[in-house]
Each structure stands twice: as structure tokens, then as C-alpha cells.
Amino acid sequence: MNLQLYAVCIGWRLLNALLIRTAFNPDEYWQSLEVAHRLAFGYGHLTWEWAAGLRGYAHPLLFAALYKALALLHLDSAWSVANAPRLLQAPLAACADVYVYSLTRELFGAAVARWALACQVLSWFTFYCLVRTFSNSLEAILTIAALYHWRAHAGCISHQSGSRHHPGRHSSYWSGSHRKLALLLAALAVVVRPPSFLLWLFLGTHELLTTGDAACLLVHEVLPIGMIVLAVASSLDRCCYGRWLFVPWQFFKFNIVQDGSAAYGSHSWHWNFTSGFPAICATLLPFGLLGIYVSNRRQLAGLLLLSLLAYSLPAHKERRGWGRGAVVVALGAQLLPALYLSLRHQRGTISVMTYLADQARLPAPLAVAFLMPCHATPLYSHIHRNVTLSFLDCSPPGWVAAVRCLNGGRQQACHADKVAALVQEDLPASSHAELLQQQSLHGTDMRNWPTHVITFNNLGIGIVDYLARIGYHYHRSFPHADVAVDDGGTSVDVYVKRIMV
Fold first, then answer.
1. Of 110, 362, 451, 482, whose CB is crowded by the most CB atoms within 10 A?
2. Which alpha helices (DSSP H) does 53-123 contain, by range?
């Protein structure tokens, strides 16, 4: 690895991590940091996927170890617990940057590699997502590293076959080492996110069909490495779940056999091609398509196609530097959405958690009710105090009881189907009272109702008036978005309970 380039990329990704001030998708917190916080500190909320065994603990354990280290060093402030995971993600993202450069140089030469690196580090999407704590982000990092070593293995083989001298042990050693490392990284990517298996099924099948000794490859490399990684991952899951289960199978059964993911929304078959991939590439799309066409790399084109079909994070980094002036303009145009999305769009749900973290450190007790769409905010990974938090729950009906049993403690989840009409202005006052009672740990005594109610500003006027009548007053707002998206508003509003005597 080019250490000088890596150092520069680390600096860039650390700045990238510090500039992230917004929320993108709930999985950034609810499937990683909230789980890690519970593992490290003993309190936090687990969603229904963890009751169903659909997620592996390998990814959250990475951040749980970080949290434990912070606690041992007495550095586990609310700020560090909320931001340190992205700072940890920064050197990993920098590895992806360097591997993009190295892979492109291996395939197309240094000149093209420099342009590919520019596309990588200035892409609005990688700037916005790669340092976030998604399992997709770690999967992408592991995949690009594995692709480089897979290609380096092929390069060693080509060098040996083209040499006029007998290839010696040194070349054979490096060829085998690259392939073993590629298989290890690929196996880790599958553990982090099982759909990654499809990409490596494509590459592995191609290797088995073209190698001279497919049986030896399977017996001496693929099976041992795959079995060891899966055994370690399954052992970690056994320790955390308290029972043996094979998470990749659970994931496959729910998403493919039972088609359970369709309940959370579905797209048409061409969505990745007509919306997802063009949006990710943005101004670089014409140059990327032209590069794919001119390069005539069928295997890379196949990998890209498979990634789109498998709903994976596309690894479309191998670009040629055609039309330099246009490419410079296209790269510059990536910076504006990157900064806007990272600093401004959907920032209110993060700002309000910083506010609540400060309130949690005051002598007065804190109990918060989030009258917002499910998973709109992070929870304990940003407050870092074991306070009472109430919120809506989007678990499938069959898993509601399991989620309550799994969590218990001082957080309560009110199932969303009971308050589906929450934002309707004509919702009767009795329903508002029922909702707040359900979200209170102590019944109907107003003195024990939540001290703070957090909502979006587009909440129906009926519940806003009702909050005022039962003793809550508007306290402050946090700007959230210039344009409301989905069920969110343009600001996050805080209502505080008047002092009861």
C-alpha cells in the first residue's frame, strides 16, 4: 500500500467524518451504534431484526470495542460516543480510496488511476455515505480491497505465464497470498452483509472454470477460509444471541424465501438502473458509461451489472480520463450536493439529540416521548444516559411482544399501528391521551408523563393544541430540511411539560 497516499486519504476522510452533521437512513444507528451501545454499556434498544436473528453481531462489535476502549480511558462523553464511530470509519474509508487507486492502476495505468481516485474522493455519494456506520459502507470497503487482491493474483499469474524464465517460488507465493487474502476479505464482506455473496459467486465461478485445478482451489483455499470465517462469526453470534443460529440463512429465508422485506417498500425491477445508479453517479455518469464501453472489460462490466441486480453498493470506480475539462467540471459539481447533504439536509434529528444529551446531564429528571415516524432519530448512542425514552415501533405484528421482551428496561415502544392517524388534524383528543399514556411508564398521572415531547413541525394541529391543553408548551425548534422528505418536516420541535405541583 502507498503509505503517503494513505496518509493523505486518512486526512481527507477524517475531515469528511467531522463534516457529517445530518441523518441519512435509520440503519446507520439502529443496526450498528444502538446495538453496540447496548453491548458496551448494558442499555439500548434492539429492533425486531435482532429478535428474529436477521443480523450478525460482527459489525456492531467493531463499534462496541471502540465504546469499551473509550470507557476504559474515561473518554466516553456524549460527543465522543456519537462521533468516534465515524472517526473510526475514516481510516477504513481511506483504505477503500487507496485500493480504488491501486486497482485502477493495475488495470489501466497510473494516469487513469489518478482520475479514478479523484472520482472516488470527490463523489457526493462516497463523501455522504462511506464514513457513516452502515454495514453497506464496510461491505464496500472490504469488497474493493478484495477485488484489488483478486486482480493482483491474476496479474501474478499473467506475469508468470508470460515470463521467458521459470517462475520461481517467490512469484507463486505472492500469487497464492493475494488470492487467499482476497478470499478472506470476501468472506468478511459476506459476514457483514450476506448479499455480497452474489458478487463473489460470480467471480468464484469464473475462477473455477478457468483455473487449472478447481478441486485444489476449493479444498485448500475456498472451503478452509470460508468455514473459519463463518465459524468465528457464528461463535460471536452465539455469545451475543445466547443461542446457535446461522444468520446468513435467517437473512436469506426472510428476504428471499418469505419475501418479508417487501413489507418495507419495494421498487420496480429497473429502479437501480433508472434511479439508483444514475443518482449515485450524478454528473459522472456519462464518463463512467463511456469508460465502461471503451475499456472493453467484460468481467468488470459483469460485476457492475451484478451489483446493481443484487442491490449492493455499486463499485463503479474504474474510469478513464476522457475530456479532462468536462471531468473537472463534473467533479466540481459533486462537491455542492456532498456538502449540502452532509451539513444541512436532515440535520434536525441529530441536533435535537445533542440537545437532549445536554439535558440528560442536568440534575432534573429527563423522560422523552418521540411523536415521530419510526426510527427518525438515534437514541442512546447519542444521549449516552440511561433515561426513559418512548417512541413508535414498526415491528411486524408478530414480533411486537418479542421486541418488548428483548428490551424491557427503561425504554418503551408504542406500536405504530395504534397511532397511524397521529398526524391527522381531526384525531380525537382521547386518542392523544391514550398515546401519551401508552408512552408513559407510570400510567395517567400527569406528573409522571414525559418531560419532553419531540415532534416534526408538520404534525397535525390537533395534537399540537392538545399538548398545550394538557400542560406542554412549545420550547424550541431545530432546523431539519429545506424541503420536507417522506414523513419528516422542515424542523424538529421540542415541547416541554410545565412544572406540576
1. 451
2. 58-72, 78-108, 110-122
Residues comprising the chain, all counted: 501
**pLDDT single digits (tens) 41-50:** 999 889 888 9
Lowest mean pLDDT among 19-28, 219-228, 425-434, 442-451: 425-434
Burial class of residue 16, CB neighbours in 10 A (0-12, 13-18, 19+): buried
Q: Mention every residue, 6+ apart, whose C-beta is less than 8 A from residue 458.
A: 423, 484, 488, 489, 490
Cell of 102: 491501486
* 72 pLDDT higher than 90: yes
Burial class (CB in 10 A: 0-12, 13-18, 19+), 87: middle
User: Within 13 Å, how many C-alpha atoms sit on residue 196's CB side?
Assistant: 25
**SS3 of 67, please?**
helix
Measured CA to CA, the distance from residue 222 to residue 219 in angstroms comes to 7
Pure H helices in 246-397: 247-252, 271, 277-281, 285-295, 298-309, 324-343, 348-359, 380-383
Q: What is the DSSP letter of 456?
A: E
Q: Say which DSSP state 364 is in.
A: S
Class of domain 348-497: alpha beta
SS3 491: strand
Task: Tell me which DSSP letter residue 329 carries.
Answer: H
Domain ranges of the chain: 3-160+169-343, 348-497
- CB of 198 within 8 A of CB of 303? no
Give yes or no for a contact between 451 and 368, defined as CB atoms under 8 angstroms apart.
yes
pLDDT of residue 231: 95
Lowest mean pLDDT among 206-210, 305-309, 313-317: 313-317
Q: How far is CA 423 from CA 205, 428, 434, 468, in A?
A: 52, 11, 15, 16
Does 313 or 391 have the greater pLDDT score? 391
pLDDT at residue 315, rounded to an integer: 33
pTM (2 decimals)?
Answer: 0.85
- Grid cell 391521551 — which residue? 433
Distance between CA atoms of residues 492 and 473, nearest Å = 14
DSSP secondary structure letters along 390-426? EEEE---GGGHHHHHHHH-TTEEEEEGGGGTTTT-TT
Q: In a 3-state reduction of DSSP, which class is residue 79?
A: helix
So what's the pLDDT on residue 329?
Answer: 54
pLDDT band at 461 (very low <50, low <70, confident <90, very high): low
| pLDDT cut 90: percent of the chain above it | 44
How confident is the model over 437-456, as a mean pLDDT? 62
Cβ neighbours of 460 (radius 10 Å): 17
Please check whether residue 432 is in contact with residue 466, taking contact to mean a CB–CB distance below 8 angstroms. Answer: yes
